[in-house]
Amino acid sequence: MSKTKLTFEEALAGLEKSSSDLIKPDITLEEAISAFEKGVGYYVKCGEILDSAKQRIITYSSEVRS
Q1: Could you count the other beta carbons within 10 Å of the beta carbon of residue 8?
Q2: Using CA atoms, how far apart are residues 20 and 35, in angstroms rounded to an integer?
Q3: What is the rounded CA–CA span in Å between residue 35 and residue 50?
């Protein structure tokens, strides 16, 4: 996973896959830990992208009001 180049949609899909993997009935402990770690990475990436988008919207909104 190259977290720096993922789009929001790709990161969200990765998060959803990690979540799906965690509920498989036959998942091993090692697989569960790996899926959890990947999911956390995708979660962080989604948050970073959303924070960036929010900041851009705030910036543009400020410019429009000026």
Answers
A1: 14
A2: 9
A3: 22
Residue 4 identity: T
Tens digits of residue pLDDT in 19-61: 999 999 999 999 999 999 999 999 999 999 999 999 999 998 8
To the question of pTM greater than 0.85 for the whole model, the response is no
> What architecture does CATH give domain 7-65?
Orthogonal Bundle (1.10)
What is the Cβ-side half-sphere exposure of residue 13, based on CA atoms within 13 angstroms? 6
Residue 41 to residues 8, 20, 62, Cα–Cα distance (Å):
12, 15, 32
DSSP 21: H
